[in-house]
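Journal club side-thread
Mid-discussion, someone asked how the predicted structure for our own chain would compare to the paper's figures. Pasting it here so we can look after the session.
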Amino acid sequence: MIETPGLGCVAVSADHYFSAAPKSEVVTHNVTLKLPGGHTMKLETASGTFSAEQIDRGTQVLLDKSPLPTPGSRVLDLGCGYGPIACGIAAQMPAASVWAIDINQRALDLTAKNARKLKLTNVTVGDSGEPFDFIYSNPPIRVGKTELHDLLTTWLARLAPNGIAYLVVHKHLGSDSLQKWLQEQGHKCDRISSQHGYRVLAVA
């Protein structure tokens, strides 16, 4: 399945991490997410979700290089997978409310499970229905440019007036062209960090 603007999907022949209902056998793993200050957290993953056997390097760069949300803010993890961004941010900023969304139901179930295990009561799987002060995303580049642009157009419109989205994209997967496209859409888009070939973009 491929994502559409509202996180709907259209059918494709293969089973992907952006499938709504992966058909692959569920094989679970445990991975370790590193947080600033030497803290770590264990997360359960499963086959059929993004980067199931290890924390994706782009996700780690996003968490390492993006500013934390402010206390009391509403935060969206767009394309949450099994929840490393949502859980990582929620653990570091317990005074923020974090919502996590994904097209993949297996991923959503894992995010909810990981948040419960970690006692992160400020994580909610689903949409708040309100504007978000911050969006964090390791966006699904491989869904294709048209689907990616539609996805970002839809959810960036949900930012509060002074909201900021932090996106991480590898330079070989089109970070520079995405930055240019976002600027052409009227967004202020700055590269705030670069590590291991990944660019962290701040979009307002």
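Post-session note: The chain has a mean pLDDT of 90.
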